[in-house]
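Entry 14: structure prediction run for Putative nucleotidyltransferase with HDIG domain. Input pasted below.
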Amino acid sequence: MPTFADARSLAETLLADHLPDRWLHVQSVAREALRISALSGVDREPLIQAAVLHDIGYSPVVARVRFHPLDGARFLTARGYDARVVALVAHHSGAAIEAGMRGVEGLDPLPDEASPTRDALWYCDAVTGPQGQRLTPDERWTEIRRRYGPDDLVTAFLDRAEPELRAAVDRTTARMDAAGLERDQASVES
Ligand SMILES: [Fe+2]
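Run finished. Output tokens:
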């Protein structure tokens, strides 16, 4: 079974040269995942592997149907990654909602575990900007809407998905508060 070091070097190979900003983003998502990986109910290894791998589907080497959560998940399945890591990547940050809006099929056989681990991954993605900068979730969602523009499907997706994204963030920050873990490190740094 691949380790976190394997996952990180795979992500680096796929992203660092072609998509350097995306590589900065995923490294930062992985750092935040490591920081919160001891939270109650969170399983460290699936979280940190999924964090560093969640956007590999953007790599031109990986892209097939051009829906990055599914392309990434299928690539990882073929390389023997744990089924939980595969499913976390497939469903990260509201992917099922976007798949429905785009008419992309293929996510259904993979379960959305809807667990603290999954919430933690969604949280890490929501507090990390496109070059790895720390943002609040609201800054992040504003940035995405601005980047894609009002007429893009991504903006429409975000309008629909935001309550679920926010709920995952809120559950995670509640777990961080309960553990006495700093929650605003992010916005202080940015
Ligand atoms: Fe991401």
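Notes: The CA atoms of residues 50 and 85 lie 5 Å apart. Will compare against the previous run tomorrow.
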